[in-house]
Amino acid sequence: MGGAVVKAAQAAGLEEKEEVRKPVLAGEVEKSIALGRSGLIRNQKKAAVNLCRLAKDSDRVRRQIIDEGGILPLVQMCRSKSQEVQLLAFLTMGQLAMTNVNRCAPIDDRDRHCIRACCNLICRCIVVSFCLSEAESCVANNTG
Prior knowledge:
Blueprint: H1 2-11, H2 28-36, H3 41-55, H4 59-67, H5 71-77, H6 83-96, H7 109-143
Helix pairs in contact: 2-3, 3-6, 5-6, 6-7
């Protein structure tokens, strides 16, 4: 009975659906990073979507993104002309900051907590900014 209630709530939009995780395929990280280096916005968008999804998977995958050189393309995508690419790149970097093992230097738990809090705050600010921009665009299109 409980499962039926959850499914009904999901169908009505009252409860978020659980995200179905796709398995990380061999070469997927490298391919996404290569796409991220592209100057084409559509390729950057594909890369940003894939890297954001992959970064949510596990510490192993997050470390792989870092080790394979994914930080520089993500920084470049943060400067993209597409706000969607920027948002996804920032969210991905926030996910990468949540690895249990810091790759640069040893830090204590207090610093790690501060870094995570800052990344989350930055991501939230970007999301709010993106939403406000989209709302302004909708208002401008409807009044024109």
